[in-house]
């Protein structure tokens, strides 16, 4: 079932984030600190936008999630003010960033990646992760449908996301759902958006 986020979910969702953090595969040991991915791509949303966090629970355990913000620019401001000080203390910046860990830490110290192009049309953004055994059963589509309804009811016109270059399966999945390159970057298949009024019907 899909249900709202509860504070009790933090540990299990962090595990999902780690197990899907390498372009959909297990990122355990990929970085020097296994908490780093969640500290950038999951936990800030649970802290700052808990109302837009949705959990997939199957068999009594959390096996996937979707987190989002309805206003990426406002989120970036809050991230810098409320999240970054604690993040910087846990993950000090190293310059020049050379190793994969240092490069990812540098990303976490910045807010530039939080606000994508065409913000007026697609002000929201999302992250979604599902354990491999749950994929292909329609749960991703249902999670995104849940968010689109929520954003539409809040008057948010569109939502965007970034997808990894190596994660070709995810790229194809989003396109089937109706996500498309943003107007200012029509050839960029790694930054996609969808209007919240769109009917989310998977295209084959």
Radius of gyration: 16 Å
Bin the helical content.
25-40%
The count of strands amounts to 7
What profile does the largest beta sheet have?
Answer: 7 strands, mixed
In terms of DSSP E residues, the strand content is: 15-25%
H-E string: EHHHEEHHEHEHEE
Structural class based on helices, strands and sheet pairing: alpha+beta
Low-confidence stretches: none
- Compute the separation of the termini in Å: 25 Å
What oligomeric state do the depicted chains represent?
single chain
Overall outline: globular
Number of DSSP helices? 7
> What is the average of the pLDDT values?
94
In order across it, which strands form the biggest sheet? 1-2-3-4-5-7-6
What does this structure look like?
This protein is an alpha+beta fold and 204 residues long. The protein is 37% helix and 18% strand. It contains 7 helices and 7 strands. It has helices spanning 10-19, 36-41, 43-48, 72-90, 100-108, 139-153, 168-177; strands spanning 2-4, 54-58, 61-69, 124-130, 158-162, 180-181, 191-195. Strands 1-2-3-4-5-7-6 form a 7-stranded mixed beta sheet, with helices on both faces. Strand 2 and strand 3 (61-69) form a beta hairpin. The chain is globular, with a radius of gyration of 16 Å. The two termini are 25 Å apart. The mean pLDDT is 94.
């Amino acid at each position: 079932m899909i249900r709202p986020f509860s504070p009790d979910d933090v540990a299990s969702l962090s595990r999902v984030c780690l197990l899907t953090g390498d372009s959909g595969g297990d990122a355990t040991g990929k970085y020097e600190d296994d908490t780093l991915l969640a500290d950038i791509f999951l936990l800030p949303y649970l802290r700052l936008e808990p109302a837009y966090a949705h959990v997939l629970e199957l068999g009594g355990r959390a096996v996937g999630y979707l987190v989002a913000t309805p206003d990426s620019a406002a989120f970036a401001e809050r991230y810098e003010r409320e999240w970054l000080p604690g993040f910087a203390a846990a993950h000090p910046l190293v310059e020049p960033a050379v190793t994969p860990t240092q490069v990812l830490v540098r990303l976490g110290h910045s807010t530039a990646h939080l606000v994508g192009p065409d913000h007026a049309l697609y002000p929201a953004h999302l992250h979604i992760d599902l354990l491999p055994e749950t994929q292909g059963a329609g749960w991703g589509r249902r999670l995104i449908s849940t968010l689109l309804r929520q954003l539409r009811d809040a008057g948010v016109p569109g939502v965007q996301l970034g997808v990894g270059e190596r994660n070709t399966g995810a790229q194809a999945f989003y396109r089937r759902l109706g996500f498309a390159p943003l107007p200012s970057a029509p050839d960029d298949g790694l930054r996609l958006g969808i209007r919240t009024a769109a009917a989310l019907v998977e295209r084959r």
